[in-house]
Structures are given as C-alpha cells and as structure tokens.
Amino acid sequence: MTRPPPPSTEDLRAAILGGALAVDDRLLPERTLADRLGISRSRLRAILDDLAREGLIFRRHGQGTFLQPPPAQASERFGVLARRVSPGDLMEVRLELEPALAAYAAERGSPEDKARLLRLMENTLRAPDLAGYERADDIFHYKIAEMSGNPVFLTLFEEIRSLRQAAEWTRARQTALGPEEIAENSIQHGAIANAICAGAARAARRAMRLHLQKVEASLLKSLP
Amino acid sequence: MTRPPPPSTEDLRAAILGGALAVDDRLLPERTLADRLGISRSRLRAILDDLAREGLIFRRHGQGTFLQPPPAQASERFGVLARRVSPGDLMEVRLELEPALAAYAAERGSPEDKARLLRLMENTLRAPDLAGYERADDIFHYKIAEMSGNPVFLTLFEEIRSLRQAAEWTRARQTALGPEEIAENSIQHGAIANAICAGAARAARRAMRLHLQKVEASLLKSLP
DNA sequence: TGGCGCAACCAATTTTGAATTGGTGTCTAT
DNA sequence: ATAGACACCAATTCAAAATTGGTTGCGCCA
To answer: Which CATH number fits domain A75-221: 1.20.120.530, 1.10.3720.10, 3.40.50.2300, 1.20.1250.20?
Structure first.
C-alpha cells in the first residue's frame, strides 16, 4: 500500500487561496485544514505564515484566518450603535481618521509595505465586477490603516469598518457606484498610494481627504 | 407607631451626590438605592432624571449610574490592547480626534450645553487637590465629546479614555502635574471653552490641538 | 386629579463558563 | 536536521444566566 506523494507547496497555496476551503471568507480552522489537505499542521502553518507575510491572508488569534480583513472583535456589540448612526455621522469620523492614517502610513510604512500597497491599488483597477472592486477597495484601505503602525488607530479603523457593514444603508452605496465613479475612485486611489509610497505625509493626508469627500458626496446623493 | 417623615428632595440629592452610596464612583443599583434611602424607585428615578439632566450624574442602560463619566462598554476587552500601546500611540490618536470633537461641539452644542461647559471649566479652577482636578478635567473633556452630537465620535472617545485608564503608565502622569502646569492647563481649558461657546469651530479645534500638544509634551517629558 | 408606591416586564449590559481557534514548545522518528 | 504528532498556552467567540436602567400599568390616597 503506497502513500500518495506529498502535494507541492504551490498547489497547497492555490488550494488555500481558492476559496473552496473557506466559509464566507473565513478559512477552516488550522487543524481541520491540515487534515483536509493531508498535511501536518506545522507544515500548513509554515505556508500560512508566508501567505500572511505577503498580505494575502489575515490571521487573528482566537478568531480565525481570513481571505479578507477580519471583522472587528465582538462586532455584535455594534448592533445597537449601528441603529442610531447616520451615514453622515460615519463619514464625519472617517474624514478625521483616515487622512491621518494615510499620513502616518507615508511616514512609517516599510518599503515592502509600500510596494505591496501599490499592488493592492492595481488590484482595484483589475477588478472584474462590482463585488470584486469592493473587496479590493476594502483591502486597500485596510492596508493603509495597518501601515500607520499605531494599534489604536488600527483598532478604531476596524470598528468604524464593522459599523459601516452593520448599518443597513450600506446597500444603497452599491447602487451608487457607476462605472465613471469607479474610474474617479481609481484615480484618487492612485494619488493616495503614490503619496504614501513617496513618503509625502501631507500630500497623502490631503489625497485621502479629497477621496473621502468625494465618497461622502456620492453617498449623500444616493440617499434621501 | 408613627412613620418617619419623608426626606426632602434636597436631602436626597445631597445623599446621592455625597458618594457614601457609591462604590468606586458607581452608585448602587436603583432598586437598592431606593430601598436604602427609604423612598420608592419611581421617586428616586425622578430625582436621578433631574441630576442627569444637569450633568451631575451619568447613566448607562445595563451598566449603572455613575458620579463620573462611565467606562466604555466591555472595557475588559482593552486589557490586551492596552499592553502594547505606548503613550505616544494614544496621544497621536487624541490629537486627531479631540480637536474635531471641539469643532463639532462649537457648531452643534446647544446654548444650555455651552453654559454647562463653562461651569465645568470653572470647576477645574476650584479643584481643591490633584485628584479633584483630574476628575474635573475628565468631565470637561467628556462633555465636549458629548456635545459633538455624533454617537460614533463619542464611542471612540470613550474607548481611548478607557484605554488610557487601563494602561499602567497612567500613574506617571500624576507625578508630572505640578502647580504651574495645572495653571497653564486651566488657561488652555478656558480658551477651548470660550471658543466652543462662541461657536468658533476653527478656533476651538486649534485651541484643543494646542492643549493636547502641551499635554503630550509634559507626558513624554515625565517618561523614560 | 395628581403624585406616590408597587409590581411586572422590556432592553442593554455584564458575567460566567464552555467551546473554538491561532500560537508555541517538545518529543519522536527517520 | 526536519517534518510530524501531541500537549499546552492565549485570545476570542458563544450561550445562558444574572444584573441594571427604562417603561408601563395599576392601585392608593390625600
């Protein structure tokens, strides 16, 4: 009785990223995943370490491993708050927080992170459909928050991100995204990414502010 | 057998605010408190309503009634985060958030709230000792966050406030507060309050930024 | 009639403990 | 030496019970 040959690392990476082993952007637990792939947990973790270092997956201690930025902790907590929050409230906060994130990312992001940010920006250009664009856009903004190098900033960003997803009026935003608006967004994303990569903190702050003001305008336009 | 006369409302208010019926700035539960004071819960709640409207106590649904601004929800959650947060991280975030809070408070605070804010500012001047000053200062900043009229801003403010109290290096700050520093703080508090009461959003933002920069400087000076 | 006391119920939060899940070290075999 | 297997640690989630402020309705009585 012969054992099947061990699968190649490349095959394993593809299988993990493929999404067939994930439920709602969340991968199966490591133990289950290793069993399913027919490898040991230690080898799986080595592969996951690489993927996480490359920014292709997101891991959180007691929470899981994700193909998208993970939800904020105890996100059910925001259910009550989300009800009394208006789109304007949320955009006000984003307009104060995210420009600062961009500025600090420009100052403190490592060269590797900056190169990765450029690739994430390009991903938004290549998005095949609206859903794909939203995913790429989400990761792009998340990466900037991560690059700020301040765990408090990152935590607050995750919370308003969860809040936005918990609010009902989020659906209205999708209908507001036409092709020309996506094109304009992409130009602004490019300006943000370039400023961050150049280490130009003030320019990055300004580019992010302009971007969010545009998002706010198109969001308010699509609501009563 | 005669019943004792019902206590006067004024006595009850004094008893509640006195602190003898509170544990660590948190009042006893309403049911217990009513029993202890020998009045019904409905009358107690009427008195508490008044006190809350005057800003002398703080109530939170499933949490309790407090003599100081209440802690953020599930504050134990921040225990993990507090460990890897430096004073610099926290001041960075405060410098982005609180100036915005002051600006929105100037724009949207009601005349009653603005009058109340002035009284809170005066309370910091009359503080008898260091502990009293810290309490008054805490309430002053909290009131500004409340006046911003944005529940998301208020929530984020409460979280960084809890984070600050959870961090260990908070104690170092007290030793850093000398009489001349308190005097300078008071001048800046006055500038903030005046700008907010005048409805001058930009001036309020600037005054708060200057104040926090000064706090940051004296904080970093007192730490290794 | 209006205020007060009383009771029951609703809603938001905390607390507690078990279960889940990523993180880390150790031991073995080849 | 390296990969696998196992035990244990740490952070989180989940569910159920308990706590606590919020609300309503009823009765009493001066």
So the answer is: 1.20.120.530
